[in-house]
Amino acid sequence: MSVLQVNDLSVFFTVGERTIEAVRGVSFEIDRAETFALVGESGAGKSVTALSVMGLLPPRAFMPAGKIRFLGRDLLEPGAAQAIRGGGIAMIFQEPMTSLNPLHTVEKQIGESLRLHKDLSQEEVRARVKELLELVKLPEAHKRLDSYPHQLSGGQRQRVMIAMTLAGDPDLLIADEPTTALDVTIQAEILDLLKSLQSRFNMSILLITHDLLVVRKTADRVGVMKDGKIVETGETGKVFTRPEHEYTRYLLASELKDKGEEANPNAVSVVETVNLNVRFPLYKGLFRRAKGYIHAVRDISVTIREGQTVGLVGESGSGKTTFGLAVLRLVRSSGTINFRGMDIQDLHSRQVRPLRKEMQIIFQDPFASLNPRLTVGQIIGEGLAVHGSADAAEREVRIGSTLREVGLTEDMAGRYPHEFSGGQRQRICIARTLVLKPKFLVLDEPTSALDMSVQTQILALLRDLQERYSLAYLIISHDLRVVRALSHEILVIKDGAVVEHGPSEKVLQSPEHPYTRDLIRAVY
Predict the structure, then answer these.
(1) Phi-psi label, residue 169: left if phi above 0, alpha if psi -120 to 50, beta otherwise
(2) Which residue in 164, 165, 172, 214 sits closest to 189, CA to CA?
(3) What number of other Cβ atoms are within 10 A of residue 154's Cβ?
(4) How confident is the model at residue 492 (pLDDT cuts 50, 70, 90)?
(5) 3-class secondary structure for 352-414?
(6) Whose CB among 91, 105, 254, 317 lies 3.0–4.6 Å from 174's, allowing a Cys bridge?
(7) Residue 31 has pLDDT above 60, yes or no
(8) Is 288 part of any domain?
(9) 320 inside domain
(10) Which DSSP string corresponds to 111-152?
(11) Secondary structure element (H or E) that encloses residue 160, with its range
(12) Of the candidates 204, 234, 250, 209, which has an alpha carbon nearest to the alpha carbon of residue 49?
């Protein structure tokens, strides 16, 4: 008998006088110990389907049709979903930091589920929490019982979330984008952990993701969703090798490909660093005196030429972003920074200011980096106004032409950031830098928050702009697939130091350092 049966499920939302059809006629089954993946772009209806199973839809949602049965029980009966929630079915949410209560310790949050579903004493609860943390391989589990979420890393918080779901001994685990915000090595660890727990407890898993690589590694069967419908379903191997639906073929074609052409080795140097170091002081005591230093960047030397992309790869905390900010003179550093033949390391900030329009940065989260109170036209034109690059009439012309260059339309200049999708917001961020006609761009995780198909579009746009204007890029990422698709050279960084440096294909095909091999193994 199937663990979960979903038949002809539809979920609509009422927004004012409008009705939005979020899920339409979705049907699938999940067998015992099987992993079934729902794949699709943002807005396809994946998470809404999962929330329907859990009985966690918001008040403005309603189901005009459909049946959901869990181990033969109708979950649409009043109180049925609440009765099995946390026990029979548990859910891992996409962002553990926002899912965990910041005011409660790890022990209290996991123990709450035990107290709800198990008849245990306080001592038994504490012992079981420790056992669960050890089960999910949380380092020094006994020391983490009294920790708060902010004291844990992203991977550790995700392990706590998994331990919390296991507390009720569920038959079905729903994992909603469980690895999206994690480094590739941590992603691999979490996926391996879920597979081992599934085997140990004979659990079924409903995996929700837009990452096709995750599906390839973990799912037995897959359902491809588009516009609220499942357009194709079947065994993962068959769907990925012989896709029948046009949208499935589109998703597979959107997987990131290797960069083909080589950069000109004799091109003019745009940025060069020699033995660049960044140290942050540790202040202690009443008078806040420096008692030590964190060495965030250690003796990094690199040259980035016109039309060339250098990729900076490493896990969170390795010093990637700090190095990028140091190159732009946004954090204090020591060593040499040459920009277009000029040593800018010892220049006063007033002397650096005229150079700012020529060296720009695109941030990881486009929504957070755009001012929600300004229109798109004001955001793009702000740099022109600050640098006095054009009068009002010329600014308007340049804003319109730049919007067209990044694949947007001129009439979007009067709209606000919240009115755009993630991919469109990233295009706006690119337009904001491009309007100043820069020579050098730092791309800090420019596609990490985007669907794979949108990632491909943004990377294609960046490649096109680079070829058109001979731009020099420093791309910072923990995702080797993104770096491979854009970079000519790669620097692998660990603990602030470069452990491997060379042409992209050489580093990825014949890695010399064990850390590089670990990163590649986690992705491929």
Answers:
(1) left
(2) 214
(3) 17
(4) very high
(5) HHHHHHHEEEECCCHHHHCCCCCCHHHHHHHHHHHCCCCCHHHHHHHHHHHHHHCCCCHHHHH
(6) 91
(7) yes
(8) no
(9) no
(10) HHHHHHHS---HHHHHHHHHHHHHHTT-TTHHHHTT--GGGS
(11) helix 154-166
(12) 209
Cα–Cα distances in Å, from 524 out to 159, 179, 217, 242?
A: 23, 15, 9, 21
Cα 296 from Cα 278, distance rounded (Å)? 6
Q: How far apart are CA 106 and CA 129, in angstroms?
A: 9
How far CA 418 is from CA of 320, 373, 403, 415, 461, in Å, comes to 29, 10, 17, 9, 22
Task: Please report whether residue 442 resides in a domain.
Answer: no
CB-based contacts of 411, cutoff 8 Å, min separation 6 = none
Using DSSP, state whether 289 is helix, strand or coil.
Answer: strand
Our count of domains for the chain comes to 1
Q: What is the CATH number of the domain that holds 187?
A: 3.40.50.300
Where residue 259 falls among pLDDT bands split at 50, 70, 90? low
Tell me the mean pLDDT in the region 489-499: 94
| Residue corresponding to tokens 């189901």 | 63
What is the radius of gyration, based on Cα positions, of the chain?
25
Nearest C-alpha neighbor of 39 from the set 256, 258, 255, 257: 255
The DSSP result for 15-38, as a single string, is ETTEEEEEEEEEEEEE-TT-EEEE
Cβ burial 193-213 (10 Å sphere, 16+ → b, else e): bbeebbeeeebbbbbbbbbbb
**Lowest mean per-residue pLDDT among 65-69, 252-256, 393-397, 409-413:** 252-256
Q: Tokens for 478? A: 């923990």
CB 236 within 8 A of CB 219: yes
469: left (phi over 0), alpha (psi -120 to 50) or beta: alpha
Q: 482: Cβ–Cβ under 8 A, 6 or more apart, which residues?
A: 256, 447, 448, 455, 459, 475
Tokens matching residue 53: 């199973």
Asked whether 226 and 466 are in contact (CB, 8 A), the reply is: no
Cβ proximity of 126 and 154 under 8 Å: no
* Domain span at 37: 4-253
* DSSP H or E run through 422: helix 422-434
Rounded Cα gap, residues 151 and 106, in angstroms: 10
User: Which residues are within 8 A (CB) of 24 and not within 5 positions of it... i.e. 6 or more apart?
Assistant: 10, 45, 227, 228, 229
- Residues 430/406, Cβ–Cβ less than 8 Å: yes
H or E, element range at 224:
strand 221-226
Nearest in space to 303 (alpha carbons), one of 348, 345, 279, 336: 336
Reference 43, options 20, 61, 60, 65; nearest CA is 20
Q: Which two tokens stand for residue 89?
A: 């079915």
Which contacts qualify for 129-135: CB closer than 8 Å, 24 or more apart? 129/163, 129/167, 132/163, 132/166, 132/167, 133/106, 133/159, 133/160, 133/163, 135/163, 135/166, 135/197
Task: Output the pLDDT for position 38.
Answer: 96
Has residue 35 been placed in a domain? Answer: yes
